[in-house]
Amino acid sequence: MIGPERRINVFVPKIGHGNPWAAREIAGSLTGANLSELDGFFIRLLRRLHQLMTTSQKASETYTERSPSLRSLGQWVIASLMALDMIKGRLAERLKEGEINIFIQEFGLLAVAMLGWVRLRRGKNYLFIPDVYPKESALKILGRTGVGPIVWNRSADEELREKGFNPLLAAPVLPNPSQEQINKAVNQKKIVLKASGSGINRELLNFAVGLIEGEGRELECWLPWGIRIYSNDGRKTEEKISDRGEYFERFAKTLTDAGVIICYPSEMIQVIAALEGRGWDGEVMIFPPRGAHEKRNLEWARAQGLVDYVCERDKDGLVWKQVKRTQPPRGLGEELGKTSVPELLASRMLDK
């Protein structure tokens, strides 16, 4: 393992839930690691745009159709805005002193490269990919900076190698539960819905609430600010959770015996893969993807036999379409990485 004498930084913009959750899990697994969650005026502006893309059906559909070109065209603007918040946050010295810097979002990495604060040397700087595959914008930035990608599934590892990259294949970090934490006797009446960290389209939420009608079930809805529980008798109860660490810890725990998980095909696909890889045996229902990267996430999840229902729109509105689980090309145990991020980094440091 990497000892406390190593100075390690984990860097993530405070946008959404998937990237910050991955950053917290990685930082928590590395002895003495420093977690930097970038926030500020321009990050709040980007966060608002992300909320619009999630809560507006029209904006979400437009982003899904054009996300690669939009992210490519906007990468310098986004990185420049992040760079301004970095300067205000005085992160330069922290990054310069780090022996290992791990980035969880590609635009933050590009911002650091633009500012020239650190030499982005191979073997010292990494970009962890919470999605199944890197976004197209991430591939371009990786190629420009020479930073090494860290992925958690073999399909991404093989594809990146074919494209000339040298990735590290790690075990999933979200939430990567131990065998003891998985309750194989799932509660069939327990439905857990994970909204995006930027919210959820109201139509989708109301459609999901319809699942509990006449079923004697409860819908445990995890919203950006906390939990709202819908009962089939019409009651709603809410609990605000202000501490992010507590939020992610409790959310990871509640998933282990959920009978049904409903989510976007976001970084949650990594969560579901980790759960099923350890024996969880519930149903998975997926909302429509937001962006080309989420379409790829969903394609991978279906190929791995991880999806039971997908939410689609027909002439009458939203419907749940049942999906036949297929046999994956190789078992899930072979598809997922097995070595933890700390073990991978420790072996790289020993090789130098």
Blueprint of the fold:
Elements (H helix, E strand, L loop, with lengths): L7 E6 L4 H12 L4 E5 L2 H15 L1 H33 L2 H6 L2 E4 L2 H10 L9 E4 L7 H10 L2 E4 L2 H9 L5 E2 L17 E8 L7 H8 L8 E6 L2 E6 L4 E5 L3 H12 L2 E6 L4 H10 L5 E4 L5 H12 L5 E6 L2 E6 L9 H4 L5 H11 L1
Parallel strand pairs: 1-2, 1-3, 3-4, 4-5, 5-6, 7-8, 7-11, 11-12, 12-13
Antiparallel strand pairs: 8-9, 9-10, 13-14
Please, could you describe this protein's structure?
It is a single chain. Strand 11 (258-263), helix 10 and strand 12 form a beta-alpha-beta unit. The mean pLDDT is 87. The protein has 13 helices and 14 strands. The protein folds into two domains: 8-171 and 337-351, Rossmann fold; 179-335, Rossmann fold (3-Layer(aba) Sandwich). The strands form two sheets. It has an eight-stranded mixed sheet with strand order 10-9-8-7-11-12-13-14, with helices on both faces. The protein has helices at residues 18-29, 41-55, 57-89, 92-97, 106-115, 136-145, 154-162, 202-209, 244-255, 268-277, 292-303, 332-335, 341-351; strands spanning 8-13, 34-38, 100-103, 125-128, 148-151, 168-169, 187-194, 218-223, 226-231, 236-240, 258-263, 283-286, 309-314, 317-322. The two termini are 15 Å apart. The protein is globular, with a radius of gyration of 20 Å. The protein is α/β, with parallel strands linked by helices.
